[in-house]
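To fix ideas, we quote verbatim a fold written out as tokens:
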Amino acid sequence: MLVDTVHRYAEKQLRATYRQAEEDAATPARVIRIGWELGLLPASIDAEYGGFGEYSALTSALYLEELGWGDVGISLHLLAPNLFAMPLLLFGDNDQKSAWLPRCTEADFPNVSAALVEPVYQFDPNGLATTAERDDDGYTIQGTKTYVPLAQDAQVFLVFAQERNRTQAFIVPADTPGVQVAERVMMMGARALPLFTVHFRGVRVPAANRLGGARGIRMNRLLTASRISASALAVGQARAAYEYALQYAKERVAFGEPIAHRQSIAFMLANMAIEIEAVRLQVWEAAWRYDEREDASKLAALAKKAADAMVLAVTDDAVQVLGGHGYIREHPVELWFRNGRGFAAWDGLIIG
């Protein structure tokens, strides 16, 4: 039922608006409102904190594939609050969950965000340049983040910083002195998602704002969930490109027959289908083991590596199947190819 519901939303809302959202570099508020009403995030939050379910990586992977099939840019906008809520759900103490999670289960789309990625070469989530220095009263955060979604309207950020050689997360209200939202980051694809650079210059937060209290967070577990989510979204994007190329090849006639009858095209389409199915099974395996409380970090990393390569290859092949038509905006495969190139750069930007 969940997959069917999300697929209908993807078909009727995302597919109807994705091109305009890409051209305008903005997502229609109505589309986000309808998507939020599906309750995808509240369904992962305990009833104690205003939700009506519990988190499952496998369930998320199932619906994320459908969102990726619809449109990646708009989906990343819809999923942005997850970047704040899911770490809280996984690692927050009772006081932090009670204070912040109900804001992510209300009727209106929440103005929350997270700041992890940094503008450095070979970004490492476990070796951040942003620092958090402890003193008697709390923490001082210093650093610059990029790829911060919806930062211009955010009321609170979850900021990841290095504290004593460990990555930790801190709840930072947007009106805290020293928080400065800077220029928008314009990407090659997924332009419907507004991303920004944000500076944290001597930002002071109380010790109670350190996520997870004295225990802190387990960054690798969070990255595992993120990699599973990103891989599932990539499978959906690849599936969209494959299905479009397959239909085009059946309908496009050259030299008296559909080009799908040509061996080179048929083999290319078959290989696309094989690669999509292979990565999908990797994603499901990693998600299932994550839900079983097993160490799924290696499986998730392998799935993410495979998904990054697969989605780029499949979307590129889709452009090739369409030939010259694949390079013009009349067909969506050029956009899907640009989106496919982004997955390798979006580590930590997606969590379902």
